[in-house]
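Notebook p. 47: complex prediction with magnesium ion.
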Amino acid sequence: MKIEHVAVTALRLPPASPWEDATNKVQSLEFLIVELHAEGGLCGTGFTYTVDVGGTAMKSLLEDYLAGLVVGMDARDYERIWNRLQRQSRRLGLGAATMAIAAVDIAVWDLIGKHYGQPLWRLLGGAREEIPSYVSEVNLAAADRVEDLAARVDDYLARGYRTVKIKIGRDDFEEDLERLGAVKKRLGRRGAILVDLNQKWEASEGLAKAAELDRFDLGWIEEPFLWSDIAAHAALRRAVRTPLALGESLYARHQVLDYLRADAVDFVQADVCFVGGITEWLKIAHLAQAFGKRVAPHFMMELSLQLLCGIQNAFMLEDVVGGSFTELGLLAEPIAVKDGIGRPPSRPGHGIVFDKAALKSRELKPEQVRAGFSGGSK
Ligand SMILES: [Mg+2]
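Predicted complex, structure tokens below:
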């Protein structure tokens, strides 16, 4: 199944609802879509994304350098393809390079699924046919009131979700506690709360604040500290009862291994697009399993759904409000979580079918980025 031709499209569009967390106010999501055309007429579709910055750089990396390397290779040889791309781009480090590689790798796996006529979740192990999902909101804007949050939680419950993730990390910690109190009152014993700090806390203040969160019986605290401070995360895990989740800011299996060895994480959240695609993500999931940890991948709902149904140590699917391909209006065949449960489509490959007209209307235009980008990092 030789790869004959590669096509790359870049998109830039705002989330379907405004996003603001403790450390960033998001302007746009940027997606790169890669099509691998193989002999015999099969086409595999891959994708990756970034938040606000780097889409044009990744498009160039894919079009000018990586695409040519995979033409002529057999799409079934996913290890050989991944290693070729990784070795060739190693001087670029982790991040934009692994994110670009992911788009090719995901397209390769889509081709493999189509070649064998099997859905991805079954190729990856077929551990289950559905997975519980949690709703994940990105709404910490100063204008967001406790009553607004409570009303949204009522809506999530009505739609069948039983686990809700909210952003915390206001400058006034009392406001965080007030918001959590309101959510706890709404959920009662019907569901669980997860909180995400997006690396807001300083290590010196984190232990005392996290200890106060124990009384809410949270499902986890996510990314309390700077992503690279393994010691701070390990210390927090030892000090509080609430489990710890992280991994969306890690870009390779060895970074995850460092956290596992330090006993500094409970739930591994590696993002399939940030770590270089399905080939590397699977290794991370299996690594976590060896340490007795479950995985709950970051974002990318429609693809994470396939991954979680493939592997044994799956925890939950993240459904970010305003962030799925389905909610962004990019799919010809929507894939939605229903009654808090995600079920992957049975189509061969990953089953994610883009709406070509929608992609065209969201095309990234570099001149518009240059004219309008101001950044939302706090
Ligand atoms: Mg997060």
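Notes: The mean pLDDT is 97. Residues 294 and 313 are 5 Å apart (CA to CA).
Next step: compare against the earlier run before touching the bench.
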